[in-house]
Amino acid sequence: MVEIKIPGGRLRELETLDIPTLVKLSQTADFEDLYVIDQVSSHENYWRDLLFRQLDQRRPDIGIRTEYELPIEVDGIVNGVLGISIKPYIFSKSGYGGIDLHDVEVNYFIGQEFRRRGVAEQALRTIIPYSFEQLKAWRVLGICLGENTASRRLLEKVGMNQGYLGISRNHVAQGRQVAEYNLTLPEFNARKNAEALVPVCEMAS
Ligand SMILES: CC(C)(COP(=O)(O)OP(=O)(O)OC[C@H]1O[C@@H](n2cnc3c(N)ncnc32)[C@H](O)[C@@H]1OP(=O)(O)O)[C@@H](O)C(=O)NCCC(=O)NCCS
What we know:
Elements: E1 3-6, E2 9-12, H1 19-25, H2 29-36, H3 43-55, E3 58-59, E4 64-65, E5 67-74, E6 77-88, E7 102-110, H4 119-133, E8 137-145, H5 149-157, E9 161-167, E10 177-184, H6 185-197
Helix pairs in contact: 1-3
The structure holds coenzyme A (COA).
Coenzyme A binds at residues 30-31, 34, 107-110, 115-121, 144, 148-151, 153-154, 157.
């Protein structure tokens, strides 16, 4: 069972009891545009399907769980959800061992009344190191619609680099512009080392 502390709260496993709250939180036009329309017929089905699917996502060939949908709780209240999807490389990446390397793709949704309080930022600032250090990611990815300024600014703010800007062939956003943001393990390590080297200055008295 996953439980990851964030400032003022935690990310934890999705439970059946969360569904009514998430149905309520996700009744926003941007959520419906991103996740519901074209996929399933109702918000409730969407969350039930996710709950079921993540329990069924242990890849027998590599023995790891590949889907996490983690409610973001702040002061005991669910503010939104952070999703993690592990995408193992089926074919070896040259020079690296193959299936023990993978991308971790993140997605997120915050209920309207909890936005602009830094909740998504804190969740991402926690999950990026977690992805590299615990989930052994080679690369962390965030993909959103090109027009989704909030999400793009968020990904930039937490230090991800803009990758491709292209037209989606995926059924969710088919024909629409999507923006990919990424951070690789060497980039993450380089930043961490640079931060560790920042000299500590004492205030003159
Ligand atoms: C994108 C989203 C998750 C942001 O959540 P949030 O908790 O409100 O974001 P935060 O408060 O942590 O904001 C962090 C930074 O992101 C950027 N940001 C967030 N909302 C923004 C907005 N509406 N417009 C412009 N920039 C925005 C800002 O840089 C912000 O930093 P600042 O407040 O210091 O300016 C939220 O708007 C949402 O759930 N949208 C619908 C779902 C979605 O688009 N998901 C992305 C698809 S993967």
